[in-house]
Amino acid sequence: MGEHHGPMKGIKRWLYATNHKDIGAMYLWFSFIMFLTGGALAMIIRAELMYPGLQLVDPNFFNQMTTTHGLIMVFGAVMPGFVGLANLMVPMMIGAPDMALPRLNNWSFWILPFAFSLLIIAIIQSFLGISDAPNFGWTFYAPLSTKYGPASTDFFIFSVHMMGISSIMGAVNVIVTIFNLRAPGMTLMKMPLFVWTWLITAFLLIAVMPVLAGAVTMMLTDRHFGTSFFDAAGGGDPVLFQHVFWFFGHPEVYIMILPAFGIVSAIIPTFARKPLFGYASMVYATASIAFLSFVVWAHHMFTVGLPLAGNLFYMYMTMLIAVPTGVKVFNWVATMWKGSMTFEVPMLFAIAFVILFTIGGFSGLMLAITPVDQQYHDTYFVVAHFHYVLVSGAVFSIIAGVYYWLPKWTGRMYNIGLAKLHFWCSLIFVNLLFFPMHFVGLAGMPRRYSDYSLQFADFNWWISIGGFGFGVSQLILLWILIDICFRKKGEAVSDQVWEGAEGLEWTLPSPAPYHSFTTPPVVK
Ligand code: HEM
Ligand SMILES: [Cu+2]
């Protein structure tokens, strides 16, 4: 190849990065650092909640921890984690040399560290007792965030704008890449499901990130420029905030799960040694879920006093999502049915995903029932629900994807014993952490409180033990990654890596070459 076609040297390689694998790697490391940072904040929450009464922090600081934990996990850990996997895998899966818009890609990534430094500086200042970090919950409801938000709210608004810009640019890149750079013969209905789920996710991102930007812009003008979008005193309406927020917020939760469906749909066929059951129905199910995600936002607002007919509409629409979701779960199980299954680490995480995500789906169905949501709303039951879908769902799938493709990226196999230890510890502790939350929630323990009534004491002690255990378990993953990425440990692997793996990425050498496919492969 040409002389200047290798990576640049030193720091420039990363600052000026345009290569999809370099950028993907940076996204994944960024995501992991945010995961550990958000996790540290969660440990503070669980330490305070280990016993009833106030021990460690005051309620205002507690609120800052729940807020920044949620924001960092959603926007800093889960979303960039999936974007990292998209950057690394989409070009390899469609037979392309790189993403279509590599310089845009550089911007998409480098905006993020700046966006998150604004939040993290606010947290550090709060630790030092200088000022408050955002303290109104990750959903930043007005008028809490407009009238009563601390000074750092303005930095939070700027930060959200930057994250949005980054996401939109990333999404444009994914769409353009998939539409333009597919290898000859790869029709849309031959694309791997991970590519499909990311294509649909990218459209969701472009549709709803501007809505989020609108919400924070209205907040900004309400705070400083005399408007009153969300202020009843000036003719505005705080419920409008919730409508705008959840019109973004509900599709957002699908942004955080559709790529997970794609990852699991890649892993299960490999280790079941059978083609994915019902490929076409998987594509249509993904598209239906994406469509339905736009018409259910008010299921987050059953208790604000919408008209009865409205509540009923959102109840039925929400329950309808269980149908395509059920199709997916059925197809994953049918793929495993009578397959020659083996239980390598990615498969363990993928199977755990299917089971635990299904539990999260069922609690979602329970929440969707309008009259009973009156009881569950804003309790730990909701916390249990979304942590099952987001931690044992989205996070487990990212980890599964990393264990699945890491040998392809590095050319070496990680420490399998440690990886299995990581899996079993994560599995046990994640359930100890989140399962009892269903019960304290049904019994009425409210979310986002720094104290609770005595009857919840025993469960909360176990929940905290689960939390610390889960947190410490992730250090095993940190060690595995340092070992293989920086200490260059591990045995060399073949191109195929996994016996049953299929797809273009496995036809490339391991580690994959700098410009993945320099001549497009032909897909029959
Ligand atoms: C069959 C699928 C699902 C159904 C029926 C469902 C239903 C619901 C309902 C009704 C609520 C509102 C509960 C309340 O505030 O009282 C809720 C909250 C939530 N769901 Fe789901 N859900 C589903 C899947 C998912 C998925 C896939 C994710 C993310 C990957 C997710 C993440 C969340 C989050 C983050 C919240 C809480 C938002 C907040 O108040 O902070 N859900 N879900
Ligand atoms: Cu929702």
UniProtKB/TrEMBL annotation:
Cross-referenced Gene3D superfamilies: Cytochrome c oxidase-like, subunit I domain
Record field: catalytic activity: 4 Fe(II)-[cytochrome c] + O2 + 8 H(+)(in) = 4 Fe(III)-[cytochrome c] + 2 H2O + 4 H(+)(out)
Record-annotated Cytochrome oxidase subunit I profile domain positions: 14-524
GO biological process, one term: electron transport coupled proton transport
Topology in the lipid bilayer: Multi-pass membrane protein
One GO MF term: cytochrome-c oxidase activity
Superkingdom classification of source: Bacteria
Annotated keywords: Cell membrane, Copper, Electron transport, Heme, Iron, Membrane, Metal-binding, Respiratory chain, Translocase, Transmembrane, Transmembrane helix, Transport
Entry's Gene Ontology cellular component terms: plasma membrane; respiratory chain complex IV
TM regions (residue ranges): 27-47, 67-88, 109-130, 155-181, 193-220, 253-272, 279-300, 312-333, 345-369, 381-406, 418-439, 459-482
Subcellular location(s) of the protein: Cell membrane; Membrane
Pathway field: Energy metabolism; oxidative phosphorylation
EC number: 7.1.1.9
Pfam families cross-referenced by the UniProt entry: COX1 (PF00115)
Role played: Cytochrome c oxidase is the component of the respiratory chain that catalyzes the reduction of oxygen to water. Subunits 1-3 form the functional core of the enzyme complex. CO I is the catalytic subunit of the enzyme. Electrons originating in cytochrome c are transferred via the copper A center of subunit 2 and heme A of subunit 1 to the bimetallic center formed by heme A3 and copper B.
Family: Belongs to the heme-copper respiratory oxidase family.
Protein's recorded name: Cytochrome c oxidase subunit 1
Organism of derivation: Ketobacter alkanivorans
